[in-house]
Structure formats: structure tokens, C-alpha cells
Amino acid sequence: MLKKIVLILSFVSVAGATAPSFAQADLVEIMRSDLRTQKKALLTQAMQMTEAQSEAFWPVYNQYESELIVLNDTRLALIKDYASNYDTMTDPVAKDLVKRSFKWQEGNTKLLKKYYGKMEKAVTPIVAARWVQAEHAINSMIDVQVASEIPLIQ
To answer: 114-148, pLDDT tens digit by residue?
Structure first.
């Protein structure tokens, strides 16, 4: 299942740079929706929660996911900007992309910290920590795949 998630994200990255603009938004949204569904399935399996924990966990997770979507829109925009500037990269564009990438990474960490606090109140600190571990592991694997699909700057 994780390979499917990574494949979907890779395709979304490439589609964002190559699909015709009229179909691009629809295709990207379909793929991102599938990615979120697959990620939830992985989390369900990894979390091993009781029914009561699950009932408390998922509403908080869904709030987190809504905010994460906004951050991932930023990531997709960065990938698109990188792709459109790849052949004509300049120092100012490279500097801007790196600064925006750092801001995106900081936003992810800030969001995870925010929702860890909410999770530990909704469930327990141990279950919340398990979620952070699972979230980090899934996102790290996605990051590795995305990085492997994007060529290094020339």
C-alpha cells in the first residue's frame, strides 16, 4: 500500500508539471484524494486503537488533514515552480525556491506540534506519540520518493 501512496505522489508531482492545464487540476485532485485515502488506511493499521480511541482520534486527524492539504498545496506549487524554472534556473529563483521550501518544512513541523497537543488531549500521550511516529514515517517515505523523482538543480 505504501508503494501505491508513493507512486501516486510521484505521479501528482510529474502531472503537475506536464499535464494540460484544463485537466491538470482535476487529475491532481483525484490523485491527492486517493493518496489521502491510502494514507488513512495505513494509519488505521498502524495506530491499533480501541473503538473509543478511534472515535476521539479521527475528528482531530481530519482537522489536521484539512490544514495539511493547504501546506501540500504549497509543496505542489514549489514543485511546479521548480519544474518550470529547471532549464533556466537563476540564482535568485534558486534562492527563492529554497526559502519557500524551508518555510514549507517549518509549517509542517509547526502543524504536527499543534496537532500532537490536540491528539494527546483527545486520546493519550502514547497514542498521540504513535500517531506522530506513523505520520513521520509515512511522510518520510513520501519525501524520499518525491526527492528521487525530482532531478538535482543544474
So the answer is: 999 999 999 999 999 999 999 999 888 888 888 88
DSSP conformation class of 124: -
Q: What length does the chain have? A: 154
The rounded distance, in Å, linking the Cα atoms of 61 and 103 is 22
Residues 6 or more apart whose Cβ sits within 8 Å of residue 12: 28, 31, 32, 35, 76
Give residue-wise pLDDT tens across range 90-105.
999 999 999 999 999 9
Residue with cell 494527546: 120
Q: In sequence order, which residues have a C-beta less than 8 Å from that of residue 15 and are 6 or more positions away?
A: 24, 27, 28, 31
For 34-70, the DSSP string reads HHHHHHHHHHHHHH---HHHHHHHHHHHHHHHHHHHH
To the question of pTM greater than 0.85 for the whole model, the response is no
